[in-house]
Specification:
heterodimer; A: alpha+beta; seven-stranded antiparallel β-sheet; 3 helices; B: alpha+beta; Aldehyde Oxidoreductase, domain 3; Aldehyde Oxidoreductase, domain 4; seven-stranded mixed β-sheet; five-stranded mixed β-sheet; 28 strands; 28% helix
Chain lengths: 145, 793
Amino acid sequence: MQLTGSHTLEAPTAQVWKMLMDTEILAKIVPGISRLEKIGENEYNAVSEIKLGPVSGSFSGGLTLSEIIDNQEFTLNVSQNSKIGNADAAIKIILKDLGNQTELSFDGDARLSGLLARTGQRVLSGVANSLTKQFFSNFDEELQN
Amino acid sequence: MSNRYIGKSIKRVEDKRFITGKGKYTDDMVLPQQTYAHIVRSPYAHALVKKIDISAALAIEGVVAVFTGDDIRNAGINGVPCGWQVNFKDGTTMKEPSHPLLVGTGDTIKHLGDAVAVVIAEDRNIAADAADAVEVDYEVKNAISNPFEAVQAGATPVHPEVAPNNIAFDWTLGNPRDEVDAAIAASHHVTTLDFINQRVIPNAIEPRVAIGHYDTTSEKYTLYTSTQNPHLIRLMMSAFVLGIPEHKVRVVGPDVGGGFGSKIFHYTEEALVVWASKQIERPVKWTSERSEAFMTDAHGRDHVTKAEMGFDKDGNVMALRVKTYANLGAYLSLFAPAVPTYLHGTLLQGLYTTPKINIDLVGVFTHTNAVDAYRGAGRPEATYLLERLMDLGALEMGMDPADLRFRNFIPPFDGVTQPGYQTQVALQYDSGNYEGVLKRGLEMLDYKGFREDQKEALKNGKLLGVGFSTYVEACGIAPSAVVGSLGARAGLYESAQVRVQPTGKVSVYTGSHSHGQGHETTFVQIVADKFGIPMEDVELIHGDSDTVAFGMGTYGSRSLAVGGSAIMKSIDKILEKGAKIAAHKLEANIDDLEFNEGKWTVKGTDKSISFGDVSLTAYVPHVYPEGLEPGLDFSSFYDPANFTYPFGCHIAVVEIDPETGKVKLKRFLAVDDVGNVINPMIVDGQIHGGLAQGIGQALFEGAIYDDNGQLINGSYMDYCMPRADDLPMFEIDRTVTPCPHNPLGVKGAGEAGCIGSTPAVVNAVIDALWSGGHQVKDILMPLTPERVWRAMQ
């Protein structure tokens, strides 16, 4: 499944970058994340609750950041497991400096397995879109705080 | 003899219990001390099992036991076997990987839903929860699901040690390839189709269920299972998997809610519950969830094919050349190798006099669920291939598709005064009148009127199309010597026992198995009429290996042609012995007796004795022929001389909405010839059901594996089944060309509807598109609005 999106945030690139690298803030703005803990350099454990149409479940697993170029881009590698199936994704996140604004865009591919793949697939892209929207609106909100 | 039942639409006697909810299916059975199994299945299609941790599951209250692939391996249990061997062209043996009941640590998952552990608990819900608590550590690997891609260099092997190139066997049949190449090259016109006959999922409404019961007193094992085939399951499980003496095993297939082929095979879960029951000394029941049924019931079809048909300038078919990659799935299911070969390649003569035919076929392993027989099994694929080529050939050559068929049909032959028809692909057809069914179909259609309607519709911006399919199938499976020479590891005769009780009531035991076909009515009609007694006095017993002699079950439209013929043999033996008893009682010469309306009468007199009195005499033999054994009870086995060859003509009329691409099936006509008919209403019902499934493949159904081997439409939300309101009222008729080689003259009707219908629908869509100027050769099934719309752009 393709995951793409972009949004312009009302903040300079350095600030956006700092927020993305802050575990506490990230846990707040990523929809569904109930716990995020740093376990090493660019390595995190994550627990999330996600409802996808007819299937819902509690996911846990790891997040790692790689190919980091400060204030510009990084790749988010997600591996989440649950009783309803597993999701593995590699998402490239790019920040574009627009002066006082920053364009945040991402592009990635998710591989699903288990019940999630069997029964969730057809509603997933819709869910992914709504999660994306929620992520960006959470980000906007966080910036205003 | 009487004339009350045979040929009459008697209402099905079994329907009372089914309609009133009193059917007894495997899941309805609750044995004392019964436990419930839930199977832990891999969410990946290809993965190494690194570790299985069952400790959390075992700690849950109510869990009785958890067994993993390691336990199965340590117990030395074999995998489930394959029952048909198809060798490579060069004679080397088919590649036959083992199919373990559970995959153990260090072994590899081969398809989505492959099992690693079984959790057994006091109730279903505890078992399901505890299965969730089993932690399996997988190392996920790349999977492959398309058979054509699987044989390309560098493709991930499913069984690296056994078949590194993913090829299970390659196979050819027909005339030498070079002769066919030459005939194609010399043809005036060649119609070529590159197409996929997509994978479909059988979807019996009753999921598979199995109860294993080891009785500690008798040390006997009983398996209750939703199967089409109790004896074969017993043989496979006892002799090949668990190594239990066959006489210590009883297999019962009670009421079964549909099979469509998917319940022929011996599945891992059956052996697993039987083995587990011995370990815990309690009965173990496993009931498949719908989701498991999608993943693990053997699937059907899945061919990638290139087919070329050469015509001369007048439209005579000169040659047929076929190359097919048949997806077998990850493991070889019981009859899997036979389906694309001897049930498919052998049917490529169709109804036509094609002089040169060759098929080259590769059986391929992929990381997908096993593919095996599904209603029609191989014959729908052959019919699809031929009939698509005929209609497309007609369009390409500007000929009429009906005329093209009449030109190429094998002329009528009855198999009695005229010999059977020897095909180029091994079979000898028994009898046929192919022009007859097409003529009748055209009459019902009003073909001339249709072509006018089609022009009229086009003026109004609508696309109307008609599609034809004229088919022949090989049923009444099968002569043992023939299938043995083709690689079958079993004979395909049938058993019957007719036991006349002292009061003249009759118990009939058949080795065939009814799971929707109405045997309890059809077979009883025959016995009641042959003995001249009421149907109420006859009972059919099937499905229990302890009461019925070894039989081969029901599939391949074989029950009446083979099982019914076995019953006829026993009936004849009873009437022969009964006549001796009657003659003795009537003090008459046996040659002076006639048997009619349930009585033996001395010709020209009013001296007679009833069937019931003869029966009683047989068991109370006070006044009795000297030297004759008491009793009136005969077993028989019938091994057919040939397959039977039903045939027919299916015609679809569709309308396409050019704005959306949506196909509306406006009419569907079927003229089938299944030989003599015992119960027309049951035959009609079989045709209806088959048509719905065949049309389902054309317009709605199709299993989709993504490139990770995930089945992405494994639920009824995503897998589209045909519904009543998708279908028009079927217009059906029959011609009757009796089978010349079995005593009932019957050919079988279970699969016909599913074999002929699919190409008729697709041909109709293609015809509609051509009528509107869209010269489309093929659209991938199912013909969804999106695909049809795209084809028009």
